[in-house]
Structures
1.
Amino acid sequence: MTMLKGNAVVGQSGGPTAAINATLAGVIKGALAAKGEGIIDTLFGMRNGIEGFLQENLINLTDIFSDERKLEILKQTPSAALGSCRKKMKSPEADPETYEKLIEIFKKYNIRYFFYIGGNDSMDTVSKLSQFASEHDYEMRVVGVPKTIDNDLAATDHTPGFGSAAKFVATTMKELIRDISVYSMKAVTIVEVMGRDAGWLTASAALPVISGGKAPDLIYLPERSFDPEKFIESINELQKDHPALLVAVSEGIRFADGRYVGEGLGGRKVDAFGHVALSGAGKVLEDLVKERVGCKVRSIELNLPQRCAAHIASLTDITESVGVGFAAVKYATEGKTGVMATIDRADGEEYSVSYGAYNIAEIANAVKTVPDEYINETSDGITEAGINYLKPLIMGECPVVYENGMPEHIVL
Amino acid sequence: MTMLKGNAVVGQSGGPTAAINATLAGVIKGALAAKGEGIIDTLFGMRNGIEGFLQENLINLTDIFSDERKLEILKQTPSAALGSCRKKMKSPEADPETYEKLIEIFKKYNIRYFFYIGGNDSMDTVSKLSQFASEHDYEMRVVGVPKTIDNDLAATDHTPGFGSAAKFVATTMKELIRDISVYSMKAVTIVEVMGRDAGWLTASAALPVISGGKAPDLIYLPERSFDPEKFIESINELQKDHPALLVAVSEGIRFADGRYVGEGLGGRKVDAFGHVALSGAGKVLEDLVKERVGCKVRSIELNLPQRCAAHIASLTDITESVGVGFAAVKYATEGKTGVMATIDRADGEEYSVSYGAYNIAEIANAVKTVPDEYINETSDGITEAGINYLKPLIMGECPVVYENGMPEHIVL
């Protein structure tokens, strides 16, 4: 393999996470190391992903991050510092102009390395670009780095960003259990967690069991259909033992007939202007408890803080997110293209990981859901095997730098 | 003043905060110090406030917290470790049995010191008990310690628990600003903050300005009536400058006619069973933007984590919450009764506080709202004077002890 010299570009795409900038920091570290070896000269950052790249909206990251301290602040800054986009690339046959434009910009800036941090759509972009470049005799290495709080990507043991979101969910559940336990009257608190098709993040609600606490009384994942009658039975049964219950529910749970629970129970909600509104699974369960149990009930939607609460990020997640970004650069300079960098968990009792490179063309667009052995028999809780999988991913706290009472962030 | 020897009891009442256990830790420290001086022998804790006390549901805190490390964990445990209640005491004339029962239990356990941590209702209990005991020749010192995330109590510069809630709100706003800024399309994100009658907590949403960030674009407090037309005008005007807006809104904002915004705009919401439902101010503003502006819009209710996110507690708040609890014991052993311990801010540039004791009978039940000079002229933002008041209260981070990835809590 000949050494490919030139410039590099990195972009971020899809929904933000608390760790996507840590991966960017890893790519920057990798590019700075490759600069030392005379391989990569300048690392550019594209603003708003491939959309910004097509407008040559680039910044010089090699210059900006010659200051080591800035890299540390980047690691603790949530969301995508370069901005994001949701563009899904068409095939070269369907949209030849875009690809010609891309090659033109690659040549103009002598870009030989292309790194893209994102989810399934981003990996698809990596695959198409890699193939197009090789078919058009433009030597370029294209490597993807995964990120999603949903943890639903194939080929990697877990995704960068998931561990931090899981740590936020677990910590919030542990705190909520303390909060709801102060009164001696019957009450149900329902917490809706992100995850449309995969229940990984909702499953992490069970983690207080490893920290001297208890899991929510009921945990419902989208991997199982939701039975409202069984839910009410469980509430009544559990309240015989203790009055204040906590329920964790994925936004994506569905009834047996396939309809999302968030669509409601037949009655239709209308908003202040009379439009039909979807209310969310938590709200529907709240209405159900109000009607059928009659006790005090509240629903809480954890919402965006799940993906941007960098102040409580997992040190394991942030460390690995940097590591997988760094590894991506190494794979590219070693000659790999059309691959996604992965996190591979070693077998054995003690948790340890290594990084790998997986041929994206071989990754089906399949969603990796929570396996049966992680869900209990009554489909309302997480097994020990599930806890054992999740536990290492939330370990460790980052040494967050504060500025006047709030974590310091970098804005590019 | 003769030295009054005997036992003591402490209770917690009202809604939880992240600092109410820090105040409990302060009372315990004070009682342990008074034990060293031969004044207080045993400090009992009453479960579920005065309700539990009437059932003699007591635990021996002097024994439990002879272990110093447990006090540190108590300080970082959110919510009320002793449990809470919402009982409002009637007057001795209206309910003589309860007061006789209380005196009976005081005598049985030789209780000479009564500490009650809570809000307005709790201070009312302190006042009534203190008066009743003195009129019935039972020598006892009754001292209240304030707590509320709402910061709306008179006589004290600020309330224990507020600083930690404000730090959570400020940090979450700073993180959300990063999150919503990644896309280049028009969007409005509305965050609903607790505070029915006073806008202190919503005002703290402005604090990212002191930390290299910016305030939400619009901040609406219950101290000003809400004008939907002006709101829409502001959104349209601001989006000419930048596409993604953040709006902080208090749950308690009202229209000019006095109706809560959370009651809706005339159209009535019905829940899944056809019942009329209140949707919350944030949701109503979301519907309004959807209808009148038409851009992407999302509302987020910060909900219970505002009052229990102890993992991001303010060191200033926790330190003062311990201090005011300790001071309460000192005032009692010095002979004060029927008082509330307060936090007094010193004049001058540098922030410093001392503790005081305020005669509860002189505190009107008035709500302390955000003063005019802290709200900007257009009634949609916070002035520099307001920022200067709020800033010191969120300073410093607590050295949180973690256990398997989540903060360690104590359960009594």
2.
Amino acid sequence: MTGSSAKRLYVALIHHPVIDKNGETIASAVTNLDLHDIARACKTYGVNGYYVITPLEDQMVLVNRILGHWITGVGGRYNPTRQQALELVRVRATVAEMIGEISEAEGCRPKTVATTARRHAGSLSYRRLREMLDEAVPIVLAFGTAWGLSDTFMAEADFILDPLTGAGTYNHLSVRSAVAIILDRALGG
Amino acid sequence: MTGSSAKRLYVALIHHPVIDKNGETIASAVTNLDLHDIARACKTYGVNGYYVITPLEDQMVLVNRILGHWITGVGGRYNPTRQQALELVRVRATVAEMIGEISEAEGCRPKTVATTARRHAGSLSYRRLREMLDEAVPIVLAFGTAWGLSDTFMAEADFILDPLTGAGTYNHLSVRSAVAIILDRALGG
């Protein structure tokens, strides 16, 4: 297939299972700008859906309140482009729920691609990721909040993506920046 | 020269002169996460300095208080990688002051490259930007907050960079995402 075939890419921002500063598995809090910045990047690059995964009920309520403001509330009238971006957001309690939903929509189970700042043996190159998207493979790109995705999540993912590398050993991008860069590498013209 | 020569790149986040929703020239407010996310991206990609330009005295005080917390205060002990990134930030009142300071440090006036979401005739390609950096040309990449850099600023810039393009006509990245992607295109491995 060629690069013009429809891409089947989803982005998942994971708040559980992720690790804290000490390596313990936690459920992190949702950050307002993660919703906005990542939704805008997803909309710009033509991502099919942006899943926000949190098992915490109060966090689900919070996210849905923010989305309501921008999608059906006054925010959408003030800034319609923000509305269009945030319409991509789907809040779900678990990764399994997301995978089930995407499987149903796509007619097959999507491949999960975990992102990390650390190098892993046999990791997926950006060139191969682009090829898989060109081949219309449904893919979920998973990003961890806090100190990153848990080891269990990483072990269960179908692929681990090459880490982004900059100029030296410092490699502490925000998750918002990492999503933007990786979408550009995967889908940018 | 080769790609291994020292890059002489600076990032400027402009709060004046920028335009508002109606195209009027304004001075915008500083956003806390613009400091963090952009400083972290600059540090990751080896940028020489990150200038935050605002003529508003209360905003300069605010930024310096935030920087103090992370550089010499408790924030730096809690998260040393944040400290290393924020040490790149320099708050200045005007673009002219920044240009004067960089000219003195580099021994010649830097080229200014304005960024925008709109297409301009004769704009600079990312390939040519990388070449200029490889040739050790000192460059300031300027990003506008609010609704973007003013026409006056654009007209006075040495170059206007090609806009980022995604999958369709939607093109409303946050400035944080735009900086991350453009640094990756200019300096990423």
